[in-house]
Every structure is written in structure tokens, then in C-alpha cells.
Amino acid sequence: MERLKSNRAGKWLVQNPIWGFIVIIFVFFSLSNEYFFDMRNFQNILVQTSTIGLIALGMTLVMINGNIDLSVGAVVALAASLMVDIQSWEAFSGWGNWQMLPALLAALAAGTALGALNGIIVWKTGVDAFIVTLGAMLGVRGLVFIYTEEQSFFAMNFTFSDIGMSSVGPVPSLAVLFLIATVAVHILLSRTVHGRNTYAVGGNREAAVNAGIRVGPHMVVNFMIVGFFAALAGVTLSSQMGASTPNLGREYELWVITAVVLGGTKLTGGAGSIIGTFGGVLAIGILRNGMNLMQVPAFYVLVILGSILIAVLFLDKQLTRKGAEALKT
Amino acid sequence: MAETRLKQLGGIVARQGILIAFALFLVGFAVFSESFSSTENLTSVVRQSAIIGVMAIGVTVVVISGNLDLSVGSMLSFATVMVVDLHDKIGPGPAMLVMLVAVLCLGCLNGFLVGMLRLNSLIVTLGMLSAIQGLTLIYSGGQNVDIADQEGTWFALFGRGEILGIAAPIVMFAVLAVVMQVVMSSTAYGRRVYAVGGNPTASVFSGIRRSRVVFSTYVISAFCVGLAAIILGSRVMGSQNNVGQGYELLVLAGVILGGTSLLGGSGTILKTVIGVLILGFIQNGLLLLGFAYYVQWLVTWVVIILAVWLDVAAKRGRLFSPIA
Amino acid sequence: MTEQTQTPALRLDGIVKTFPGVRALDGVSFEVRAGEVHALLGENGAGKSTLMKVLAGMHQPNEGRIFIEEREVTMESPLHAKAQGVVLIHQELSLAEELTVAENVYLGELPRKRWGFVDWTTLNAKTNEILKRLNCNFDATTRVSDLSIAKKQMVEIARALTVDAKAVVFDEPTASLTDAEKVVLFDVIRDLRARGVGIVYISHRMDEIFTLSDRLSVLRDGNYRGTLVTAETDEDEVTRLMIGRSLSYERNHEHVELGEVALEVRGLSCGSLYHDVSFEVRRGEVVGFYGLVGAGRTEIAETLFGLRTPSAGTILLEGEEVRIDSPVDAIAQGISLVPESRKEQGLVLGMSCRDNITLPQIGDLTTGPFVSNGAEVAIYDMYRDRLDIRSPSWRQAVGNLSGGNQQKIVIGKWLAMKPRVLIVDEPTRGIDVGAKGEIHNLIRELAKSGYAVIVISSEMPEVLHVADRVIGMYQGEIIRTFDAGEVTEDSLVQAISGIRADKAA
């Protein structure tokens, strides 16, 4: 352990153990399945994980900030429904493909606004983010059903679903979008004043307040970002399907939190990184894809993922374990 | 003087806010909908709330001890699939027994991870949620299950039958609620659960075996899930693999609405019963008033946040949080 | 002596700070000159930390004025205080662990470029410049979680240097430092002094104060007791000022009938916390453990109560060797512990008075499966009367009671267990003077009625008042055991500073 910590790469790995795990499963699937090690398959993995991945980027910010957002799955459904429905409104019928623009703006604005609402409630009422967003998760799902009247929507404009399947050069557009977003959020978190203050607020709230950092606005901005990304994920998902259903995105909050925690972000806030979260998302993606290729039923993936999540928590606890002299409470 | 009076009154409103809201809802629905206050309607609400209610009782015990249990939803799927599947294979009695043992094992695993290893309960039960979902699918092979002879089996009693003229789910819900309320308020065990949730360190300094107490709360929660599965399986006489999906959060909503703090150490079973019934009555009342069933979720959103906000504000002594 | 100017960097005039029921600071006035190290001394509860918080803008004084370079100021918040040149180096570090040194140094005021990006070049350059001034051998880009405690402290000090600090307040800065690290810290403090900064240095440790300070001021019970020039005084005089004669505690001269040995400890050790500790406590006797914070006293108590695993040694109760692995074992063997921290360890604040008192024996108060309300209330009533607990009813949540009454609840809870050995850690911390007296009398009475009692305290008058024998501890070792009558303030002060009887003689 000590030697590991002494060199740079080893130290990086200790901080981001998920990447070690990725290397192991990557090598394992490459050796055990002929279809795994293939450029097209890698692209598949990126596309398949992009939905969860986009939301996980925003969730990382919120969790480093010391909060959590359970409402993202419902926001995915709302954004998808808005996206598919609005583009077929009469008012935009003469707009050609531009009819997608107002739909896109409405979807993203709705997600961002709901994020802002969550953030402002958490800030001003002092109610725990877990409870606030648990309520929002039910309420926003209700909004989706009211808006859609329980109907699925189908995109009439095939260009919309083509976008979801399109490529930029050899790379699928959704993979490109996910990678760009990852880099952008990484820069936001690691290079901007807002990003650094996000760590400070989550890591030592009292110190941050004493240093004059305004805790509330930073929290609201981060909730807005996760809302935006959840909405964006709803748009890309509906584009892939060429449709939206009111039950879209159920349990996404659980998958997203799993990915973020696998990536090393602490529930208590103050620690975590986009590199870790990206690793967490990829690990889930590779596991699902690899086991799918090996024709392991999807059920086992759930068991394995759950076990890994708990194992990561256990290992983390062992690493920070107190010695034999500690108080036994 | 008048000011302190007003403050006291505000305190009472804040503390008993949920009861007041409950009463207002009931009165409101009764005024605007004639059928709402009929006995039949009221009992049907309670009957429909029984499954969530039974699970919420178990989760309340976990929450009072200062932890969370998000695995109850997928555990309900697992238990229901199992009991329904085994019903035709080994008969209803053994099926229930085997299912209860299996579910209690899962509860023990939760309890071991959170109580003995002291891992974060949110993440542990999140992981268990996913793992148990997988287990259910492995068990059933992804197939939905049902009971062949739905009329002839005595298993029908729990979901469809009556005991002493009262619907069986109501009886089970009520008995469990009363028993657990008494356990929590009047036994040494209950006192220890409150102490562990209220101040884990002080509870150890008072000679309480904290790990065991936390462990036991998960076993109780799992047992309640088992009961809920019996009611659900008996009512539907079949089960989908994801029947309990999302229940964990509805259950938690009921617990929170009842006023049990997620920080632990406070709350009662009775309050949770009220919280769950409020959810049920909101749903029912809105339906009777002609709203679609999903409007209840919107109302629940507002009610949950207002309820907890009032509670927090009363403790803080000011409405808005002072943080910048 | 260093060159000193006569302008005060910081001057306090008649500072009064009251909390409900307590007058924490009662007209404190003193001045810190630019370019001096001014030590601030006082026992626990003397008002040092309140004064410090007033200086740092965390508390607003009820009366009195603060001057910086003879200009009157008010401190509305720590940020405001810092802007005016007064910086506090906390005992508990207030750093964001995952951020770099530079980010912590400039927390809340990171230099920006366009679009809200951090200007790393400026940030790191400015921070490295400060680190160089402090002779730190780490870089601005190091992550704080990778630093030792001593280096983290340097980061806090560096934070003070980002502004034109007129006065820097150090609160027990050496509490968790090694000797080598202390040397470095003292160099930094001397360097600050040479730059004309006024330094307030709060510490318990006499040796440090005499090494470092130019002058010292003493607080006692919220009152200012005077300022001395360090070079012209000695430990004796300072200790006397700190302890004073004003407290109305009598020395304990009672003659007690000692019973048989209730507890005997032989060669007990627990890793680095304490080493080779042996002592005995008889029935009817109060043994006081005196020493500085961190001397290992509390840890011994926690071991006896099953909360720590000893690495060596044996514990005998009434002559029989016992094994205590958990508080459950300890309680079964008849050991009770009134812990150091009332709110964190002693009480469940949201629970009623009655429920707290009966908590350790709740399993025995049952009739059938149910807790007997009558038995519980009977126990509560008994100890309410015996300890004079003032609470409107047994239903009252303990969190709503005063500190003194809370402490009585904890003591009552353990008396109700009828222990063979009662350990009381810091019996009167944070409670007002009247209640202190009551609790002292109570401890004496308990001993008289045949209990074996251990009292751990950081307050010398308290130890001298209640204990029959006093054990002086220093850095995990028992330095000397004083029998009744032989203990003096001087010898006790020497013992807890690590000076053994043979050397002192």
C-alpha cells in the first residue's frame, strides 16, 4: 500500500480505484469474448451509457456539494415528452426541421427550472435535499402524467430519430455529446471558481461560510445543472427511441447515484471527481455490455452491480479504518 | 404576552401540522364529495393503503434508529414472486414460511452490513435494491407468475377475505400497527431503538448494544415486507417481477409525511399510519373529485415539502433558513 | 527581547459577553502591542475561547470596545474581522480537505479570469510567496488531505498572511504537534512577531508560554486578572493568578473511613494513549486524576468502561480479575462512567428526563414484556429528590434543561445502577458556579456512603476540593500519586508538567 502511494500513477489509482476495476473487466471481457474488443462495440458502450452518464455528470456536482437529487428520472420523462410533443405542434408545422428547436429549448428550460426550484427550496427552507427531491420525484412524475394524459408520443419527423442514430465522422453523435459534456463539466469543476467553491461548501461548510462563500447560490446552480443534464438525457433518449413514454426514466436516479458513488464521490460531500464518475459510468456500461455479449442474463448484472456498490463502500471503510486504540462505539 | 401566546400557537400548529392538514383534507373531501365520507369508501381507502402501510411500519423502525431502507420495494417484488410461485408447488402454508425465511435472510444481510459493519445505510440498501431485483429475475427466469386455482385456496384469505367482518388486509395492518406501536412505546427494546437513533454514541455509553439494535430493525423491516407480500400476492393471485418497483419511495413518503425525522430518534408508528392514510385519502379524495389518479403525486409533492418545512421551521424558530 | 513598538496592534476595553445564565466575560481589557507575543492563560471555563470568538467576529460582545491600531472597530463576522486585520488560527482546523493549499489559503477570494475561471498562475504564485515566507517545504498545488496536521496548521497561518494582518490569534496551536513540529511553528510565530504583527497565544502549557511570549495576561472566571512581563515572572506566580484564592472551594481535609479495595489496576497500557498505569481505589474514597488535556486520563476511564481495548495489564474488582470488553460488561461488573462530554456521550437530548435516567437498566424495569411506568417514575423521583434535579416534569426533554441539571441527570442515571465504582469525567464542565458546588458536595457524600469514586478533572481547585488522593498524569504516564494532606498546588503543577518528585526535590 505504502509503495503504491509513493509513485504518481499508483497514487492516482488509489484515488480512483474504479479505473483499476475497469482495466480488469476490460481485459477479462477482451480475452473471454471475441466480439468485445471491437471499435464498434466500444462506440455502443458509449452510446448505451450516455443517458445515465449525462445525468451522472450533474449529479456529481450536486453530491460534491453535499446534496442529492432523486428527481432526475422524472425530469428525463418530462423532457422527453416535451421534446417529442412540442415539435409536432401546429404552430411550428411550417418550420421544417427547425420545429425541433422550440421543443429542445422547452425541454431543457423545464429541466433547468425544476432544478432551480429544488435548489431554492433546499436553500430557503433548510429541508434536507433527500426529502425535497423525493417529493419532486413524485410530483414531477405527476406533472408528466398530467401533461401527457398517460399517452406515449411518437415523433412524426424522422429527422429527429435520425439524429439519435447519426454519427460525427465514425463516432456516434450521442457518444460525442457525452464526451464533450464530460470534458465541459470536468473543466467547470476543476477550473472555475464555482467548481472549486462547490468542493469547499461540501467539504467544510462552516469554513466556506466563514470565508464569505455564498452557500445557497452555489447549491441552486448545481441543482440547475443536474436538471439541465437530466433534461438533455431525456432529449437524447427520446431521439434514440423516436418516442417518449410517461414512465421513461424510472429508477434512473438509482443507477445514476450508483455510478457516481462507484466513481468515488462521497455522500457526505466535499470529495469526488468527474474522472471518477466517468469511470463509474463506464464500469456499469462495460459490465452490462460484456455480460450481454457473453449471454449472461441481464438479471445477474443487477446482482453483480449491487454487490460491487456495497463492496466499494466496504473497501472505502477499510482504507479509512481507525486503529486498535480507537473508541469502540 | 400576546406575542408568546401567538408563538405557542404557532408551535402547536407546526408540531401538529400534519394532523391539522389531515383533518382539513378529510373535511374538504367530505364537503366536496358526497361519496367520500361513506363507510365503504373510507374502508376501501384503508384496505388499499394496507400494503404500503405494513411496509411503512417496518421502515419507520429503521428510520427511528437513524438509518434508511430503500430495499423494501425490490424485496416486496422478490417476496411476492416467491410466495406466489411456491404456492402451487408446495402449498400455501409452506410457501409463506419459506418466503418469510428468505426475506428475513435478506433483512439479516442488510442488518449485518449496516449494523455490524457500520456501512452507510443509503448506499447499502440502494445496492441491495439492485441486487434483490436481480435475484427476483433469476428466481423467476423473467417470467410473471400466478396461482392456478384462485378461488379454491385459503391463501385468498389475506388479500381478499374478511376476518370478523372486516377486510383481512385492514385487520393485519391494524394488528401490526398496534403491536409495533406498543413495542416501540412500551418495551425496553423500543426505548433502545429510540436511544440509538437519538444519539448513537450516548446509547453505547449507556450500555446499549448499538450494532444489534440496528441489525434487528432491518429484520423487522424485512418481516413487514413479508407480510405485505402475503397481502399483495393473495389479492392479485399472481405477480410481476417488478411489482414493488418504486414502493420504497412511496413508503418513505408516508413515513416522512407522518413526521418521523430522517435523522432518527423521533417519530412513532401511529404517525406513520396517519402519514400513509393521508397519502391514501389524498389519492382517493382527488379521484372522487374527478381528478386523474396521478394528480395525487403532485399534491403529495407539495404536502411533503410543506409538512417537513413546518417541522424544520418550528425547531429553528424561523421560517426561512439563515444560510447565505 | 525583540524590538517592540509601544502602539497597541489590538486593544480591548471592558468586553462583556453574557450567555443565558452565564457571564462568560466580565469586563475584560488588555492590549497586544505590535511585534509582541502576548500569551493568554486561564483554566478551562475562564473565558479564553469566548474572548477569542469575540475577537474573530463569531460572537458579538454585549458591552465594550475593540480597537485596531487605536481605531475603534466592530467585528460582524469572521470575514469582517479578517478584512480588518484580525485572524484566528483555530484549534480545530477549518480547511476543505480536497482542495489544494492555494485554494484553501484564498478560500472565498480565489482570483478570477474571464468566464469565472480560476487564475491559477496568480493564485499559486501568491500562495507560494506566502509559503516561502513561512519556510514551508510544500507547494501551493499540494492537496490539503495529503498534509500532516502541522502542515495544515501552516496553511491556516498562510491564510492569515493573505491580508495585512495586524493581529493573529493562536488557539492551543501545539495541541496535536510533535516536538519537532513545534520548533518550526515557534520559528514562524517569532518571524511574524519580527514583522510587527501582534500575536495572541492561547495555551495551557507553561513551558511554551515561557519560551515564546513577551507578556502574558490571565483570565479567571471571565475576569481579567492582570498582565505580567514574562521575563519578570515565574510559573508559580502565573499559576497562582490562574487558580487564585477567590474560588470558595475548601481544601478537602475530611477524614474518611476507607473500606476494602474496590478497584485495582495493574500495569494497564493502551497503545500510545497511556502506558503502564497502576492504581487502586478503595470504598469510601475519591481518587482524583489531574493532568492536561491529552494526558491519558479520559482514555483510562474509557478502557475501564469497556470502550477501549487495553494492550496490556489487568483490572481487578474487589480482588477478582475481570475482563471488560464492552460497556455492557462494565455495567454488569458494577462500573459506571459519567462521560466527559455530556451532550455527545452522556445524554439522548431529545428523550425525557425519566427515559435518560433509566436507560442503562431499562431491560430490568419490565413487568412481563412491558416497561413498568411505575418503576421508572419511582427511580426518576428518587434521584430527582436526591440530586435536587430541577425540571418541570419527568416528561421534559433533557435538551431543554440547564447544563447543571443535565449533568445531574447523567450522574443520577449512573447512581441508579448502584455501581461498585463510579467514574466521573469532568464533573462540572460548562455548568455555572452554584451547580458546581452542589455536584462537588454530592461526590463527597457518595464517597461517604461507601462508593469508590474516581474523579477526572482539569480544574485544580476541583480536584483539591473533592479528592482524597490525587494522581498527577503527564503524557500517558502517572507521574506521582499524592496522599491526602501531602498534595500542594506547586507539586501538582510540577507533576502534570512532567516533573517527577525526585527531580523537583
From TrEMBL, chain A:
**What residue ranges are annotated as transmembrane?**
12-33, 45-63, 70-89, 101-123, 130-148, 168-189, 220-242, 254-287, 299-315
Q: Which Pfam families match?
A: BPD_transp_2
Q: Which GO terms describe its molecular function?
A: transmembrane transporter activity
Q: Which InterPro entries match?
A: ABC_transp_permease
Gene Ontology cellular component list = plasma membrane
Taxonomy, superkingdom: Bacteria
Keywords for the protein's UniProt record, in alphabetical order? Cell membrane, Membrane, Transmembrane, Transmembrane helix
Q: Where in the cell is it found?
A: Cell membrane
State where it is primarily located: membrane
Keyword Chloroplast part of the UniProt annotation: no
Q: How does it sit in the membrane?
A: Multi-pass membrane protein
Q: What is the protein's name according to its record?
A: Ribose ABC transporter
What organism, scientifically named, is this protein from? Meridianimarinicoccus roseus
TrEMBL record, chain B:
Q: Which UniProt keywords apply?
A: Cell inner membrane, Cell membrane, Membrane, Transmembrane, Transmembrane helix, Transport
Please list every transmembrane segment annotated in the UniProt record, as residue ranges. 12-31, 51-84, 96-116, 122-142, 163-184, 215-237, 249-282, 294-314
Q: Where in the cell is it found?
A: Cell membrane
Can the keyword Transmembrane helix be found in this entry's annotation? yes
Which molecular function term from Gene Ontology is one that the record holds? Answer: transmembrane transporter activity
- Output a single Gene Ontology CC term carried by this record: plasma membrane
Q: Note the superkingdom of the native organism.
A: Bacteria
What is the membrane topology noted in the UniProt record heading this document? Multi-pass membrane protein
Q: Which InterPro entries match?
A: ABC_transp_permease (IPR001851)
Pfam families per record: BPD_transp_2
Q: By what name is this protein known?
A: Ribose ABC transporter permease
Automatic annotation (TrEMBL), chain C:
| Principal location listed in the UniProt entry | membrane
Describe its membrane topology.
Peripheral membrane protein
Q: Which InterPro entries match?
A: AAA+_ATPase, ABC_carbohydrate_import_ATPase, ABC_transporter-like_ATP-bd, ABC_transporter-like_CS, P-loop_NTPase
Q: Which GO terms describe its cellular component?
A: plasma membrane
Q: Which domain of life is it from?
A: Bacteria
Q: Which Pfam families match?
A: ABC_tran
Span of the secretion signal?
none
Entries under SMART domains matching the protein: AAA (SM00382)
Q: Which UniProt keywords apply?
A: ATP-binding, Cell membrane, Membrane, Nucleotide-binding, Repeat, Sugar transport, Translocase, Transport
Q: Where in the cell is it found?
A: Cell membrane
- GO function terms (MF aspect): ATP binding; ATP hydrolysis activity
Q: Which Gene3D superfamilies match?
A: P-loop containing nucleotide triphosphate hydrolases
Q: Which residue windows are coiled coil?
A: none
Q: Where is the ABC transporter domain?
A: 10-246, 256-500
UniProt protein name:
Ribose ABC transporter ATP-binding protein
**What organism, scientifically named, is this protein from?**
Meridianimarinicoccus roseus
